[in-house]
DNA sequence: CCTTGACCTGAAACGCGTCCCACAGCTTAC
DNA sequence: GTAAGCTGTGGGACGCGTTTCAGGTCAAGG
């Protein structure tokens, strides 16, 4: 491998001058520049990226910790992060966690070792306080509401849109509203926001027999459909459009009269079913997270969700 | 930032000894090891990852060039790559290309600069010959059949399963078989493999009015449904389960008698519709691609697709 | 008693750019 | 005329580990 010193020696100029040519800086006479460039070409020289990183003190890489690599929620987030990163000259390194706190800590340690310029947790199993403490190692960003903990965060503000959604459901006259939650509301901020909005708008806590916990994908909707049908739900508010589609398909496959439906995430499926949904703008969350990770922005960035009302025809 | 020399000075030992402690190597007396470890703790020392990379000559990072970050095909591939990378101690850096050859070249250049230890093209817009030439810069892997070009490649061997699929269709007695192709068969290996198998098994080239080109997602199936319905298709073989679902939904939404259906990629949707599909094992392709990129394996790795026959009830 | 070799430790080169500082030559300004 | 300032170049320290090689100690084998 030929290096910058080889070029210096071969061209008869100093390393500093070669470096100036390399970085297109002033204070190099055109003749010298040409000559050095020629030598670089001849010797087939390319600067070493790692040496540059070491010398310049940054890697222009952002680590993104992901519980699941291929889940639509994460991929949308990653898409936003990656696009923004590209525009800012950063690259994204995928760090699979599989919800394992041990791995999360390992990545934090890597941040400390300057393997990345910043670290984004799209989800986290470690206590948030511990993550906050790790800010001493470098920029750490979470993608959930950190509550009172002081840490850069980018997340969706779901309150307003959930309220709108339930107000819509109420106004439409539905009486037995089924709820599909991703995880236990004691653990998941998303789930608890849904329950809160329900309680606040409907005026009572959701009934247990109309609440399904642990829905991630289409198949869960299909399973939950049985529960809702058995308990006489006249409406189902799912935590994802594809999940709502699953519910829809359960009723349809069993030739049951369809309940009202509402999804989330504004995917194709809701548009096609013609059901209302909520766009959480995950891509925008990703972009915001990146801006926080690079230090372009600071503090907490809330992205407002949008309730998208659609007439239900099916 | 405290570095290895600080530890050496502070502990009263040499840099070499500290390095030995750091890397858990032999030939350090327990007492010295303890002492140095204590000093490291006191000074809050962590080795610099970039310096290590520079010194050791590798980054343990594999670049993955992606045309689309959030598309199911790519995310499945990335999942396989990422899992395998994790097991081998490598990390994955996402490189968005958006089908832009200029960007692809830029990533190749970064490989040359030793920014990654290897580069995987999940798709490519550059001519394959040019990519093959770039092997001089380091391990480059493609995820498509490279034909006669000599380059490490991991891809699915679709021939056998496509033949099985068409044989199944034929045996079932379908007469007017619609075909949905991702891209023009003159450009896309996938599309041309489908057409070839069709022609070979059915005994004639697919009819133009029963061929849809350019299907990527559910919505395309929905659109294509109109074409097939208008032209009296009694079967549709789509290039994706979700796409097949789109076709299904078109017919259903228009209260038309459903045609036979077959998808690809073995997603939930085909299982739920109960239609046959083909599993291309993209995750396995990803794993294989990683093994090629790290140099653990060489040559070309074909992953056989599996035809999964299911009775069609709907 | 001498050789062999495992065990400890250190000096210094190496991987490779970047950047600050110094200095020479030349021009513009007062 | 001379101080001030810009241009063009070079020297060398710096960022930070890893690794080779040399040298010394000490115990086992012959």
Description:
The structure is a homodimer of 314-residue chains. Chain A is of the alpha/beta class and 314 residues long. Helices cover 46% and strands 16% of the residues of chain A. Chain A has helices at 4-11, 15-22, 30-42, 49-56, 72-88, 101-112, 128-133, 159-171, 189-202, 218-230, 241-253, 268-273, 282-294; strands at 61-66, 91-96, 118-121, 140-142, 153-157, 177-181, 211-213, 235-237, 260-262, 277-279, 300-304, 306-308. In chain A, strands 2-1-3-4 form a 4-stranded parallel β-sheet, sandwiched between helices. A 4-stranded parallel β-sheet of chain A has the order 7-6-8-9, with helices on both faces. The longest helix of chain A has 17 residues, at 72-88. The termini of chain A are far apart. The A-B interface holds A 46-51, 53-54, 59, 61, 69-70, 72, 75-76, 78-79, 82-83, 86, 91-96, 109-110, 112-115, 217-219, 222, 249, 268-269, 272 and B 46-51, 53-54, 59, 61, 69-70, 72, 75-76, 78-79, 82-83, 86, 91-96, 109-110, 112-115, 217-219, 222, 249, 268-269, 272. The structure holds a DNA duplex (30 and 30 nucleotides).
Domains of chain A, number: 3
**How many angstroms does the end-to-end distance of chain A come to?**
66 Å
The H-level CATH homologous superfamily of the largest domain in chain A, spelled out, is Response regulator
Helical/strand content category of chain A:
alpha/beta
State the share of residues found in helices of chain A, binned by percent.
40-55%
List segments of chain A where confidence is low: pLDDT < 50 over at least 5 consecutive residues.
none
Share in β-strands of chain A: 15-25%
Question: Biggest interface between protein chains, with counts per chain?
Answer: A-B, 40 and 40 residues
Largest sheet of chain A: 4 strands, parallel
